[in-house]
Task: structure prediction
Amino acid sequence: MGVLRIYLTGQLGIELEGRFLGGSDLPLRQGRLAFAYLACERERTVTREELAQAIWGDLLAAAWDSGLTALISKLRAALARIGLDGRAVLATTEGGYWMRLQPDVWVDLEIAGHSLHKAESAAAAGSFNTAYGDAVVAATILRRPFLEGNDEPWIHSRRRILHAQRVRALDCLVDALAWNGELTLALTHADEVIELEPYRERGYQRLMRLHSQLGDRAEALRVFDRCRTLLSEELGVDPSPETMSLHRELLS
Result:
């Protein structure tokens, strides 16, 4: 059997040996939520009560138990259409369900997390050439939306984690590009970081340095003004001593 691939970002889907099961092929919105939740928590058993809460939330009906059983049965049947053993993949355990997958399974969010860890480790060791590839992989996956159109609390919580990971991946990518002298491309990703984290001064500091390295001191100073204005108008604070020190360097 080939490698099973699970996509939790962008278009939800499962792929095996050229056969693709998209989100629309899963039983209703509830089936998509159930599959995604079990995939995200696949290292453990998820109790029936927890899974039902993740699917229906405040709309949980009194007859949720039988509804959940029927939903899992439909999910298993859908997985069988691409050659998977639905009962083996969505295994019933004492008190709940456990998504049991082969060791070589490819899950996009797990790949993003592993790639981010490798990129940060390589960057910390000064190996930016190695960090670059892993940072690209992580950033590419983490840019894609997670279960777009859904607003369950657990989804919002997961999105916050993925947002933070995306920023970290872009940080590594900018540093790797700057190390390699690809300053213009680094600027593009540095701007993206500021869009994601507009109140984080580190992003402005890095953008100021990149413009300075490109010989555009005027633009570097405009970035500082942008940072100072935002902090003053939105938070009522001044830039940090580090940002002020960098500003003085640019003026000297």
Q: What stands out?
A: The first helix runs from residue 28 to 40. The first strand starts at residue 4 and ends at 7. DSSP finds eleven helices and seven strands in the chain.
